[in-house]
Amino acid sequence: MNQRTSLLPHGVAAALHPLRQPPSDAPWNLDELDGLLSPLPLRDAAVLVGLVPRLGQWQVLLTRRSEGLRHHPGQVSFPGGRVEPDDAGAAAAALREAHEEIGLTAAEVRPLGWLDPLATITGFRVLPLVAEISPAFVPRPDPGEVADVFEVGLASLLAPGNLQRQRLQVGGRIRHVLSYHEATARGRRIWGATASILDNLRRRIEVGGYHDNGEAGTAGSR
How confident is residue 212, by pLDDT bands cut at 50, 70 and 90? Predict the structure, then answer.
């Protein structure tokens, strides 16, 4: 993919940690998981937050996990997984997993930078890698891992009014998790870690003083 194929939405570039400097600090949501995590150290993982310029608007690439998976079957997620010993780092892990899960090749993706690390209740420290994906990309999902690949408009996902907090009982205590209204998610349930990662992007853009309208071709790429 060319180094400059299209222009990023307002504020996205400024909201990201530099690609060459993955954030090393603790996950931002540790307080929310107090008392729910194993005492063992968090394991490193990475996901790919893919942005697709399409018909003048930016879309976010998402997957629905296969029902036969052991962890989080049927849930909406980003392509990704644990960082393996053979991976050159978190970026390499995210790109490898995206290739294995949905057939994304290196020529179809341009990594841009990082969001803040997130802890999951399953014991991972997840680094979200934001990247631009070619609109010519045609998903080739591995049916053993991915049941569906779809896109949702970035502007809708960044609108605070489309996000809600839900109460769940986990480990004998009440926990509040983020969830998008189904109308925003095109009838799918986007919640939990996936919703938290998208909300982290929204909050980082707001801190920078930007308000994204989701239009492609409105700001400089770097």
Answer: very low
Instruction: For residues 65 and 184, give the distance between their C-alpha atoms in angstroms, rounded to a whole number.
Output: 19
Report how far residue 205's alpha carbon sits from residue 207's, in angstroms, rounded to the nearest whole number. Answer: 5
DSSP state at residue 205: H
Question: What is the tally of helices (H) and strands (E) in the chain?
Answer: 4, 11
Cβ proximity of 81 and 97 under 8 Å: yes
Assigned token pair, 170 = 């986990």
Q: What's the pLDDT score for residue 69?
A: 57
Alpha-carbon span 45 to 80, nearest angstrom = 7
CA 194 to chain centre: 6
Exposed / middle / buried, residue 6 (Cβ in 10 Å: 0-12, 13-18, 19+):
middle
Residue 84 φ then ψ, to 5°: -85, 155
In the predicted model, is pLDDT for residue 117 greater than 90?
A: yes
Is 6 strand, coil or helix? coil
- pLDDT tens digit sequence for 143-202: 888 989 999 999 999 998 999 887 776 666 667 789 898 777 777 889 899 999 999 999
**CA 126 – CA 44 distance, rounded (Å):** 6
Q: What are the pLDDT digits (tens) for 24-36?
A: 999 999 988 888 8
How far apart, in whole angstroms, are the C-alpha atoms of residue 52 and residue 192?
Answer: 22
pLDDT, residue 187, reads: 77
- Check residue 181 and report its DSSP letter: -
Backbone angles phi, psi at 15, to 5 degrees: -80, -15
Helix intervals (H) in 50-191: 90-102, 154-158
